[in-house]
Design brief:
Length: 206
């Protein structure tokens, strides 16, 4: 049976259009850190690098070459943890995408070990050269207690959803543990019009 995160992990990836509290366990990711406006070719190349690594792992698994029985699954969606540069925050600047600091990532199945992830990184780098490959790392990340909500629409309209989440935090005595937040991209912006895009927005809270 093919493992599909949309069906087996709905709680994590398909929240409602209202704030929901959740505890997110440790997960494994290929990650890539960067800064600046994501609307451009450099960011697109970073995304391409992560997908190349992730689809290679999927193929190894499907063929039974990942040290286990053949296992088929749907590649997890692109995610990103976003914040602003220290300078932008200290100076209280108006929001500018040029001030963004991010870590984008794609989750990997639990069976992926660090050794497998690094060997795959080396192999794919030879077959599909990308200057960003050298900056990809394999990490374990645990979001822990979080507040998340499904955002419908353009990335540029996320502020409206964040306002709803902020009100929920105030009403339920929740405090964000960091200014950063996570985004999970359920829609492909190349195929879906902005007003119909779906993005999970997540705060880390206590």
């Amino acid at each position: 049976m093919k493992f599909e995160w949309r069906k087996q992990e709905k709680e994590l990836y398909l929240p409602k259009t209202k704030p929901t509290e959740i505890v997110v366990p440790e997960q494994k990711f290929y990650t890539l850190s960067g800064a600046g406006d994501p609307n451009g070719e450099p960011f697109s190349q970073e995304v391409s690098a992560l997908y190349a690594m992730s689809y290679s792992i999927r193929m190894l698994s499907k063929k039974g070459l990942a040290g286990k029985e053949p296992f088929e699954y749907t590649v997890y969606p692109m995610e990103g943890i976003w914040t602003l540069s220290d300078e932008a925050v200290a100076e209280g600047r108006a929001f500018n995408k040029a001030d963004l600091v991010y870590k984008i990532m794609i989750r990997q199945p639990d069976f992926v070990t660090e050794a497998l992830a690094l060997a795959n990184l080396e192999q794919v780098s030879k077959k599909k050269p990308n200057p960003n490959n050298q900056n990809i790392t394999f990490e374990r990340i645990e979001d822990g207690k979080s507040l998340q909500m499904l955002h419908l629409g353009s990335y540029d309209d996320e502020a409206k959803t964040f306002e709803v989440m902020e009100r929920y935090c105030e009403e339920h005595q929740l405090h964000r543990t960091t200014f950063a937040h996570r985004e999970i991209y359920l829609s492909d912006p190349r195929k879906v019009v902005p007003e119909k895009m779906k993005t999970v927005l997540r705060y880390f809270v206590e």
